[in-house]
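Consider the following assembly input.
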Amino acid sequence: MAEIRGEKSPRASGIEAVFLASREALLRFLRARGAGEEAEDLLQELWMKAAAGTSAPVAEPLAYLYRTANNLMLDRRRGEVRRLRREREWSDATTMGGGSASAVPSGERVLLARDEVRSLDAALAALGGRTDAIFRRFRLDGVAQQEIARENGISLSAVEKHLQKAYRALLQFRSRSDAE
Amino acid sequence: MEEAIGWTIRLRHGDAGEWEEFAGWLEADPGHLRAYEEVALADDEAAALLPLRQPPAAEPQPWETRKAPVGRRLVLGGAAAAAIAATFGYVSLVAPRDIYAIETAPGQRRTVALDGGTNIELNGASKILLDRKDVRFARLERGEAWFEVVHKADDPFRVEAGPAVVRNVGTKFNVLHEGETIAVEVAEGAVLFSSDGEEVGLSAGETAQRQAGQVTTARRDASMIGGWRGGQLNYASASYAEIARDLSRSSGVEVRAAPEVAGRRFSGVIAVDPDRELMRRRLAALLEVDVRLAGQGWILAPPDR
């Protein structure tokens, strides 16, 4: 990897230097995050992503690397969940023949997605307008908790409480929609 | 579970120290990872679902829109202008033309205000030719543009795209010119669309598409037309290939559909998000594909598991 150094822009070499210096810590993180034997491979993937550069300047390269590593794990987990769901759909499917497991017409899938959006909206709305708005501000608009506290004139811990409540509802929503 | 939720919230804007601390928490008990993953997946799914909300009206614009016709103007001299005029199929002998081009890179957008109350919004990867001597004229060389035109009975606004001409009777409409395809969608008012010797009148909610010399018309929800301006791409049974093309233009990320999925169809709304990673994950969830990284671009591929 050493030969990659020196030929990149200063910003890129910055993040690469951080990567090299934090290799062990990132590896530990990937293991703790459930990467198991694949931790080394995933670290390699992380390295490639970091070396390819990001479109925006990275303010905190190490936090960025952790976040990217976390997203790699999340991507994998999501892939597994999708596979499990497909297998379940497959065995549930009443249709015969050689169609693929995702043979649900996309129009229908979209309807499902829309129904889900509606019921998720309803679940969040049921928590009260403030919790709903704070959650959206935090998760969808990407506003930090301090800023939300200031906007609403409430304490940081109050913001945290609203968010906790919203996340509990999301978990409930998820276990419910999974059970269907 | 409380703790796992706490971590999910903290790590949203976590610094390196917090991530390290999180690793320690995970190591402390194997149950922690399971709990965290459950919260993370719930969080992820909610984020993928929620931006789909309709109507999109109240959503903030994801990009700043630049007002006024600023930017890279390419001013052509007389000879070049005449050459371009000749390719338009006619040369005006009365008024000399003064053609200039406005071009956008993928992911970039421009708003152009012309005299006479015309507003043009140019999507990414697009090029439009305008005439300083004729503010009732535009030629979409490639890409996509949204037009808002004030009605003047004696002086219709004219948009050319390839061999097609859209003459407008005062309205809001969208024009797409991509390779051989030319599509016009009318959001308000009415236009006349002529191509290959045929002429069709289109009113609000009507669309015309010219492909391989054939013009077909269809209807769609007028409020959905030009949704790209607000970062919303609206589809009724669009192929993944078309969606990839639109995403490339609007987001600046080069998106391609793998042959296995290029023909699949999707109906619904896709939000173009400045947060690329979020957009990528949302796409994967909505289109049920793997969104693979390929160089600087993305490939929509069949899920490999």
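Residues 30-49 of chain B form the longest helix (20 residues). Ask yourself how this observation constrains the way the partners meet.
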